[in-house]
Design the sequence.
């Protein structure tokens, strides 16, 4: 399938401070625009490109007690534990990541060490850290529950935590995350200070993960295509990926709103793995929210239907078919209906609806919109094993919208991967002066 993308998606660039401000709005107190990772697609993999540092927002309080923890060691000096990691760039990168997340400061030295990460090691470390902080949260909550309710400092949070107490808690948390298992109990013993430090660490960690997710979705959607499995590599983010995706959907700002359709397609690739109705319920509520954007709701209902939740799909399909009985409203209703069907992978139904849309578009004259509709029909026909008909539709699409399709979709859309292997494909492209892109120098893709 294809979406016409009017916005300019720049793949692989480092996100600026301005980008982060627009995407997240006002940063939370205590820390600001922490780190962002850029992505570049290389050989089909999303590769960590680098990290950018942003200073705290003016006017916010910045704790001074972390400064002594981040001073670069002098010449000939080594930090504890670094001697054994000296020849291991991944170990040094992990240490730099943990230190930056715990104390909230990214030094040039640490930034340089991030280059030691491989994509696999980076995402594995993010998953590990997330699992550790969740485990610590449960342990701290259990201690609050077991505490004497009369102990207001423990059970109710007290009147505040000193800078010294938080510095000590940070020190123990860092040591624990760096491999000293005995420091776990020492960290938990800090009580309210430990809860504050863990919460701050979690906030920073989740923001790093969200920035990675934003960049990955932008990279995977850059060719304008839309197909099942397009975002499958996002599994590197871990089991809570649907919840991370939900946070992206809830973001405001121009860039976040433009990304929403792609975010929903990312959800589609994982919705069948979500077995719990409780985890799906927030998505159902969004789909039922009449104040949400209608097109967003249509796409989300299709995603839920693809995942096996068909109640909203059946009701919306019936409603749109009834609206389509009105000639004046027919084309908008059919356009929404075919979006619903194609997202839900109801390909037989989608083929019939695409033909109806084409029937009503053709009298309006040749257009790129008509060409894209023919292309989407070709995709649906291919998925229903009607290749001859799919090639007929593809020929019409190339005649009307070949240049738009040739920008990437035609060569990368997995919906027509089988057609690209057919001996008829390249001659058909050449008929319309469309040549497959040549691999860039050093590109291992075939």
Sequence:
């Amino acid at each position: 399938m294809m979406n016409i993308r009017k916005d300019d998606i720049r793949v692989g660039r480092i996100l600026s401070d301005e980008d982060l401000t627009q995407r997240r709005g006002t940063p939370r107190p205590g820390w600001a625009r922490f780190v962002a990772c850029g992505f570049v697609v290389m050989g089909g993999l999303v590769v960590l490109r680098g990290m950018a540092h942003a200073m705290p927002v003016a006017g916010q309080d910045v704790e001074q007690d972390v400064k002594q923890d981040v001073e670069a060691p002098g010449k000939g000096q080594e930090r504890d534990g670094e001697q054994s990691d000296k020849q291991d760039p991944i170990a040094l990168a992990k240490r730099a990541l943990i230190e930056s997340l715990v104390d909230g400061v990214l030094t040039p030295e640490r930034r340089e060490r991030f280059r030691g990460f491989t994509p696999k090691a980076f995402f594995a470390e993010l998953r590990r850290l997330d699992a550790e902080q969740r485990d610590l949260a449960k342990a701290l909550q259990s201690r609050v529950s077991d505490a004497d309710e009369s102990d207001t400092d423990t059970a109710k949070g007290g009147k505040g935590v000193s800078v010294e107490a938080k510095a000590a808690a940070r020190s123990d948390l860092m040591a624990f995350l760096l491999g000293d298992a005995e420091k776990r109990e020492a960290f938990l013993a800090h009580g309210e200070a430990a809860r504050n430090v863990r919460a701050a660490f979690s906030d920073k960690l989740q923001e790093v993960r969200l920035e990675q997710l934003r960049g990955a979705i932008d990279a995977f959607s850059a060719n304008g295509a839309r197909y099942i499995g397009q975002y499958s590599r996002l599994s590197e983010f871990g089991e809570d990926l649907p919840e991370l995706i939900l946070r992206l959907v809830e973001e405001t700002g121009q860039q976040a709103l433009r990304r929403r359709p792609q975010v929903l397609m990312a959800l589609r690739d994982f919705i069948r793995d979500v077995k719990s109705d409780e985890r799906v319920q927030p998505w159902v509520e969004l789909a039922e929210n009449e104040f949400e954007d209608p097109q967003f709701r249509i796409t989300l209902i299709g995603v839920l239907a693809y995942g096996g939740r068909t109640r909203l799909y059946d009701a919306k399909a019936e409603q749109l078919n009834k609206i389509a009985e009105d000639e004046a409203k027919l084309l908008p209703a059919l356009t929404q209906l075919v979006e619903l069907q194609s997202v839900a992978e109801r390909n037989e139904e989608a083929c019939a609806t695409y033909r109806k849309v084409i029937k009503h578009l053709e009298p309006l004259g040749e257009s790129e919109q008509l060409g894209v509709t023919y292309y989407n029909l070709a995709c649906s026909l291919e998925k229903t094993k009607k290749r001859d008909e799919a090639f007929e539709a593809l020929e019409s699409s190339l005649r009307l919208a070949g240049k738009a399709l040739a920008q990437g979709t035609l060569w990368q859309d997995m919906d027509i991967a089988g057609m690209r292997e057919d001996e008829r494909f390249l001659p058909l492209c050449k008929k319309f002066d469309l040549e497959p892109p040549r691999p860039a120098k050093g590109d291992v893709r075939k």
